[in-house]
Amino acid sequence: MFRSVRNMIYDLIEWRSQILSGTLPQDELKELKKKVTAKIDYGNRILDLDLVVRDEDGNILDPEQTSTISLFRAHEVASKQVEERLQEEKSQKQNIDINRQAKFAATPSFALFVNLKNVVCKIGEDAEVLMSLYDPLESKFISENYLVRWSSCGLPKDIDRLHNLRAVFT
Fold first, then answer.
1. Tens digits of per-residue pLDDT, 34-69?
2. What is each CA distance from 138 to 55, 62, 108, 132, in whole angstroms?
3. Where is the Dedicator of cytokinesis N-terminal domain (predicted)?
4. CATH code, 30
């Protein structure tokens, strides 16, 4: 919710600077004001704030100069528009989630669990065992390295890690 409100505020700040610049033609200015008021009403709804009733030009209706029935009808229209916008946002989010799931399902993902038990090599010196995944098609390593230092005695240098030399390559 924080990200969506933050993005709304950024949009409002940008639109405010466009309005204050005074370079917009009258029809674009009117459309931009409608967009601003719609965004404000939508943000108020998301934050569970009161709905502000406006006229066709986006101006706040004065309850002392507007009849009760007119206020009620304007409130119904505004409420309906905000709810439609919420439904659009939900459907867009669901479409994005479905696309993301489809993309994730289409991308193959594998994991390889390695548990190093022993290294048999008679060299009489300390050694390092380096493991990583290699892609022969692209001729490059595709994972991070896993390094184990092995002593000349046939045990890991870090004796605390005996029977706990594990790595997961994804």
1. 888 888 888 888 888 888 887 777 778 888 888 888
2. 63, 69, 16, 15
3. 2-170
4. 1.20.1270
